[in-house]
Amino acid sequence: MEGTTLRVNADIRLKDVPGQLIKALEPISLNEGNIVGVIHDHEQVTGGRISVNVTFEARDQHTLDAIFSMWKERGVEVAKMGQIFRTYGTEYLLVGNLTQATLRSITEGINRLGGVDSIDLQYSLSTSTESKSVLLLVNVRERQKVEEIDQYLKRKSKRGNFLLIRGMGV
């Protein structure tokens, strides 16, 4: 998700019957949310309900409200809300002879800058050349970190001799 998003962590309780987990996760997808993680503890049943911890991203408060409304309609209980914080996402396209070691070095370097919430790499290989296209999606909690990452990637692209194209977000 490019731009500003809300990162949410919620403990929810579902009826202990088949299909309830899908019914709980579907409102996130239907409202263009991004599911980051799900911990489903089927062994712990209390009052006929099981606990699930879900972490997801929502575009804004309106989207979050729509998810909670759908949960209420579907009988999903929100037992506890964890952190809700804003993240700033941006994307980069890297093109060149990018080895696994180079990509690992890039992601480790971005992590060392601090304040990074998530990094996602998606790449394609060319069968006719050694060139790769890599889509790098980065989410940070502070807007100024985006500029630090921009500068870091510019330096890496000059040294690594690969093309760097910055997305239009944040």
Secondary-structure blueprint:
Elements: E1 3-15, H1 20-30, E2 34-46, E3 49-58, H2 61-73, E4 77-96, H3 100-112, E5 116-125, E6 132-140, H4 143-160, E7 163-166
Antiparallel strand pairs: 1-3, 1-4, 2-3, 4-6, 4-7, 5-6
Helix pairs in contact: 1-2, 3-4
Q: What structural class do you assign from the helix and strand content? A: alpha+beta
Largest sheet: 7 strands, antiparallel
For the record, the CATH class of the largest domain is: Alpha Beta
CATH domain fold name of the largest domain = Alpha-Beta Plaits
Proportion of residues in β-strands: over 45%
Shape descriptor reads elongated
Average pLDDT, rounded to a whole number, is 87
Spell out the helices and strands N to C: EHEEHEHEEHE
Could you name the ranges where pLDDT drops below 50 across 5 or more consecutive residues?
Answer: none
What's the Cα radius of gyration?
Answer: 19 Å
* Helix share, percent: 25-40%
Secondary structure tally: strands: 7
> Would you identify the CATH architecture of the largest domain?
2-Layer Sandwich
Note the gap between the termini: 11 Å
CATH superfamily of the largest domain: ACT domain
- Tally the structural domains: 2
Q: Helical element count?
A: 4
